Amino acid sequence: MTHSRKKTIVGLSFGLAAMLAIPGQGSFGARHAAYSSDPPLERTRQEVKMLDDLFKNLIVLIDETYVKKLGDVAATTAGKALFAKMKKSGWYDVRALGLTDVMRNQDDLPRDAFEETAAKKLVAGDAWYEEVSEKNGKRYLRVATGIPVVSENCVMCHANFKGNKGNVGALSYTVPMIQ
Ligand code: HEC
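# heme C complex -> structure
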């Protein structure tokens, strides 16, 4: 049902884009319009991409700069403290997930149907998995993005990551659609 409705909307906007594709207007705009059947979704997806880049760069920078020995505070612990503050401020919900069978913190296990499906997709090699969900009449974008073993340093505390070339973790976002 939702699927067929989506198809119709996409079909419509293709037609519209064709009409709007005035020569000299720049083909990028027209091509972009053709795929923007859901502008709030596009905007929210863009925000998640930006946040994902910010969080991952921050966590890797903390790891590279401050985490030198086994007893040091893990960069993920610092990241999780930041996520808790962002959630408390009412922005959105972000969680760190573990995708291997050894967890440093059981709280990081995939928790619901979305995270379980996302975990399978990311372990299979996808970098991004998303779903649109609805709660109390409000739409949310849920996204899980993969975390590979980006540094030799990781293995110091996660011995089971050794030799793993795929995604060993994820960030799981629940973000209200930007209207
Ligand atoms: C100093 C030890 C240490 C280092 C180095 C380290 N981690 Fe962790 N990692 C931890 C601890 C402790 C947790 C649990 C954090 C918490 O819940 O506060 C954790 C949690 C995680 C999680 C969430 C799943 C779980 O096991 O709870 C992922 C994914 C993760 N780390 C990936 C990495 C990656 C990738 C690197 C390398 C960039 C890395 N870690 C480096 C100690 C470390």
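# post-check
Residues 60, 63, 67, 70, 72, 74, 76-77, 80, 96, 98, 103-105, 108, 147, 149-151, 153-154, 156-158, 168-169 surround heme C (CB under 6 Å).
Strands lie at 93-98, 128-135, 138-148, 167-176.
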